[in-house]
Request: fold
Amino acid sequence: MNKMSKASQELDPISDMSIAQSSRRDFFRKAVVYSASAVAATSVLSPVKLNATDDPAIVEEAPWGVKLGEPITKNYYGMPSPYEHNNIRRGTPILASGDIYASITMCPIHEQEGIITPNGLFFNRCHGGVAEVDPNEYRLMIHGLVEKPLVLTLDELKRYPSESRIHFIECPANGGPEWRGPQFNKIQFTKGMMSQAEWTGVSLKVLLADVGVKPEAKWMLAEGSDNSEMGRTVPIEKVFDDAMVVWAQNGEALRPEQGYPVRLLLPGWEGNLQIKWLKRLEFSKEPFYAKEETAKYTVLTPSGKAIQHFYPLEVNSIITSPCPEKPWTDLKKGDLVEIQGLAWSGQGTIKAVDISFDGGKNWVEASLKGLVLPKAWTRFSYMYRYEGKPLLLSSRAVDDSGHIQPTIDQEIEAVGIEAVYHRNAICTWEVTKKGEVNNVHIRKS
Amino acid sequence: MNKMSKASQELDPISDMSIAQSSRRDFFRKAVVYSASAVAATSVLSPVKLNATDDPAIVEEAPWGVKLGEPITKNYYGMPSPYEHNNIRRGTPILASGDIYASITMCPIHEQEGIITPNGLFFNRCHGGVAEVDPNEYRLMIHGLVEKPLVLTLDELKRYPSESRIHFIECPANGGPEWRGPQFNKIQFTKGMMSQAEWTGVSLKVLLADVGVKPEAKWMLAEGSDNSEMGRTVPIEKVFDDAMVVWAQNGEALRPEQGYPVRLLLPGWEGNLQIKWLKRLEFSKEPFYAKEETAKYTVLTPSGKAIQHFYPLEVNSIITSPCPEKPWTDLKKGDLVEIQGLAWSGQGTIKAVDISFDGGKNWVEASLKGLVLPKAWTRFSYMYRYEGKPLLLSSRAVDDSGHIQPTIDQEIEAVGIEAVYHRNAICTWEVTKKGEVNNVHIRKS
Reply:
């Protein structure tokens, strides 16, 4: 066991990652299933302990069993156990440009269980620090090409009929540094720019019925009230498909770093489009080409042309166990172990995930488990009998829009290595003979 | 608008509530749906603000827009906005017996959005304070009528294939003080002894395959390692139906007050059975009649006999908006407003919820919205045109096991007023002409 200490937090330095970075209608309200999970029919543990009389942790009374615990009066809101102090968001100096206000902290997805990220671990990207908004002074303005411009207080906004949906949010730069080869030997830094929550708010379809968007309006500018005035333009089709204005995350108010009190939610689309501390929505005939959608968040292709409007995130997956932070160094030959991971797509619902043990030559089908929802993290699982030999472990997801993850070669051929954003190539972990796990790139060329 | 201050927390005193409180096989893995929600076709707001040039919050720059926000380096784990300081768990002196170690803090379900309760707001009941368990010293023992007794470390336990499921946990004393008439004019105190989370752990079916439970075993004792040695006995049918041993809650380790590092999960059954800081599972032919299942958690009926083994929680519902903490005093005649609430059943999946405006004489069907899952909170909704007249607002849920919520009269006739536990009678809010909301009991007798 990796000894867990109750020591005060030992944090990685955090710093800025200067991330410069086809809408398919897929309505949310369709049948979803809890899929069948991989359940081992055979023994997981080898050997089973028959009598543990030599284990003081069993034969002696635990210290916490012989004294009263803390009264819950000390715990009105609460925090995780101090032993969990390493399960935190992290930045990395490698991604730093020295600006702590425009930075990113990544989600410890190797510690993530299920498909809900607790609010304290949800990844965070800011462009001008975390705005501290007074909800009493908060206003949302809706204007431009509309019949009736509208200004709403927070209370007025919350009077609209609400909806709650589970969706991931991912930065399009997730894995971006990997375009030029393996950069990090940590899953938290290669794939931690994403998290998932249950969001509650009002569908823009419903809200905009009170405003009357004019037929000539083709684009919507969403602008934040924070210091960076973060702004992005959204095509009208997405606005009337499944866009929402949300005020709650996992049952409570949005956290300050997630845009308290109100953010835009565009299920399955780039995280930076989902404007936080939302100030206004303006409708127009043309895109706005805001600051953050010209210099940043475009993709230069080998042809010399850039992809400028690049919104939905592609089908993707990553094995979260094992991973560099969760190696198999404690396993013995013959042990049964669960290979687990997350798959997601901004273009639909995950249909299947395959796993390869030889870096993509041969594939076996993993089980999807738990809730399988559109534009949402879906957990996959494969029970494996550990053989103590080196492996090249890869996962490859398919969604119901017909997309499949490309190889690294395929993706580079399509968009080159200047892409930075939207990396969804198949990821591979090298498992060494000792069970250590490393981030490697499998390429033919 | 109710002005929200950033003041330091003004807390209610907290104290002990000396809460003293037919398994139907309903496997979890079946199709679930996101149900259709109530969407208003007509305008929610009256009147719409056409030009808000007199509103300084719109025409002047917000203070948080003209300075840099806090860098996220200050926010490794994070907390809600300081303006949300009143959205906390609360106890009440009315339920106090002076013992702060055996107490309960209730969930602010009127502030709850969606169906996931954030871990910091999950209701909490302890019998000997919050045990602070060292995960390195943690052991789970499985013994008694089994082929191979087993002692597991936390790492060993987590090697089993995991599952994640969304379920509520409710104290059987939820609403218990109400048996003798309305006691609290707050929903947090009448129905706040429940919350819901996504739980991750191993199914007992899977874990016990390694132990081999003997055919003569009919009961399982679950015992906590906390100071109170909280123990309860579980019928073997439930053990092999959907019982789990869980280590995570909404994606992170269980919070200390929820039993870190491991608790028992018995979907839909009394909260006190779902033993926290779980130490051992012992199998036997007979029930154990542990301390907390003789004096407490039994129900005396009018016949003089007590219901001793009383496990699944009955179909239930409550309107969370409006409620005493969320009145309609700001509404104007003609305003469209959403009536919302939560329905749940420990015996199946919510099938329908009806709403009455006249205290149960006439009923209309509400919409279910969001995820509709077995043994889980299900949100219901009804769009209502406010008329400014007094109402008696009730909700009544039906589950797919064929159960329906009883009236107060029906429930008292069945189990008397000494019952304390398992109260699932229809609840009613009185809405006054001014829009104030009060907890009232509708009875014929």
